Amino acid sequence: MNTESYSFLLPPAGPDEIGRLGEYRVLRLLGKGGMALVFQAEDIALCRPVALKVMKPDLDREMGPWDRFLREARLMAAIKHEHLVTIYQAGQQGDIYYFAMELLEGESLEDWIKQHPQPDARDVLRMARELASGLGFIHDNGLIHRDIKPANIWLEAPSGRLKILDLGLARFVKEDVNLTQTGAVLGTPAFMSPEQARGDPLDARSDLFSLGCVLYAVCTGAKPFRGETSMAQLMSLAADTPRPIRELNPRIPASLAKLIDELLAKEPAERPATAQVVLDRLRQVEERMSDPSELMPAPSSDVVSQGSSSSRHSGLLALVRERRLRSIWLFGLTALAALVAVILTAALASPWFRAAPTSGRTALPPTATAATPPAAGDKVFLTHLKPSERDKWPFMPKKEGKGPPPNIFDTISVGGKTSPQGIGMHPPPPEDGSVSVTYRLDRAYRFFNAEVSLNDTAPEAESPLRFRIYGDGKLLWESQPISRAAHGQPVRVPVEGVNLLKLEVACSGSPRGAHGVWVEPHLER
User: Fold this and answer.
1) What's the CATH number where 126 sits?
2) Which of 296-305, 310-319, 469-478, 499-508 has the weakest average pLDDT?
3) 96 and 118 share a domain?
4) Residue 263 and residue 213: Cα distance in Å, rounded?
5) For 16, which DSSP code?
């Protein structure tokens, strides 16, 4: 679009700009909604790319959108979480109000669903965990989102980490405030809860219903409640039961489909009570992923459909055949397990297996069993692992020459709390340096967790630091710029299937004050 479309912007000062707003160079339009425009821009002072959300200047400020816009900026600035978009600043230029937030690379979940109509269950589980984690944080802060939908969820590149966007409709659970005209329905009909559609009082379980709608769409590529118009969608929401997930995507485990069905219960009391309950259930689903019964064929929808007597008869026959096959299959597994047990028992009792090592055979211990896999959630600190590769630790110049900084990381502490398992890194001089350490994981872990910050003893860094995590050479995560301890950021990165994990700290200028810290970095099995 041309510059005339955005007459509220100041004139551009460079060939790549479409104008200026406050402290930002505005580069191009990214998207627009009913209340705001979103631009790609650059913070002039920090040379930092941002997404600039600008309230449309033609809105009536007396009708409520202005209040909602301000509230979104304040709410997003007040709560910070790895699965929520981060806001940097809110500002005003004349009658134009805006706020700057992190610029995300990647795609919306809405676009991702179009390209993956039948995704793998593990991808669905990862997204479900991250979305439930972000929602849980919102709820723990006394808020409900009220507009959870694929278009408001972002998959960040290259890590694929999920971010929840747009808190424009969020409000406090106990808040008695109306930010729109009385009787208007706020939200997106295809993904809102029945109680939200009715205008009833809401709590966190309303967002959990929307979570169920989103997960249904992720699993199947289709919305659970459909209609050509908003009214038709609301009628479907009130009256219809969604088609069973596993009919549309047999790759989805039965226990996950069951959880989503519970999230889609019409009555809030019949849904999981909290996002934490959903997270716990998702862990149980993961633990059962290896159970063959999880992916057994789902019953035919003909069994429960309201069709002709012949279709119901064929459905009943299909169910009988399925149950017969299931019984035969389970019987076969049971018989095979019993046969293996008999063979092992006889073998262990045989003198041949109890022969002394000098016989040339390996003697089994009295209770020889396969190694017990570690329980989910086991924590292993990186400081308990031996690095497989490490850049030489940097040296800092001293008056009498060069040498290691004296006791710079003897006590790693952030926010007044000591980090006994912390790892300190300091990019080397003179400029544009980086330091890294690599650990061999042997694909034995699922998540890496830490917090990145500066040590309490650090002065403000002259050049902001970037913390990066690589898995087998691929960038998995990168921090926002950090120049003081107050900029600390939490990290939780999936590392399932990763062999070599590399942690890196880098700065693009002077390393003075660059006391980078990985606070209690640990792995989960």
Assistant:
1) 1.10.510.10
2) 310-319
3) no
4) 8
5) T
Residues 331-340, mean pLDDT to the nearest whole number = 43
* CA-based nearest residue to 424, from 338, 485, 493: 485
Q: Which residues contact 512 (CB under 8 A, 6 or more apart)?
A: 459, 461, 462, 463
Helix (H) or strand (E) holding 381: strand 379-381
List pLDDT tens digits, range 276-314: 999 999 999 988 887 877 776 655 443 333 333 333 333
In eight-state DSSP terms, residue 63 is S
Would you say residue 265 has pLDDT above 90? yes
The SS3 assignment for 98 reads strand
Under 8 Å between Cβ of 519 and 414 = yes
The number of distinct structural domains making up the chain is 3
Question: Residue 514: what residue type?
Answer: A
pLDDT band at 217 (very low <50, low <70, confident <90, very high): very high
> What residues have CB less than 8 Å from 228, skipping those under 6 apart?
none
How many residues in the chain?
525
DSSP string, 399-422: TTEEE--TTTTSS-EETTEE-TT-
Q: Indicate whether 113 and 261 sit together in one domain.
A: yes
Q: Which residue has the tokens 């900029």?
A: 487
Q: What is the DSSP string of 70-119?
A: HHHHHHHHH---TTBPPEEEEEEETTEEEEEEEPPPEEEHHHHHHH-SS-
Q: Of 125-134, 171-180, 305-314, where does mean pLDDT reach its minimum? A: 305-314
pLDDT tens-place string over residues 43-81: 999 999 999 988 887 765 544 555 666 665 666 666 778
Decide if pLDDT at 195 tops 50.
yes
User: What is the side-by-side order of every strand in the sheet holding 87-93?
Assistant: 19-21, 24-32, 36-43, 48-55, 96-102, 87-93
CA distance 143 to 52: 24
Active site residues: 147
Q: Is the pLDDT of residue 518 over 50?
A: yes
Containing structural domain, residue 479: 379-524
Residue 362 lies in a domain: no
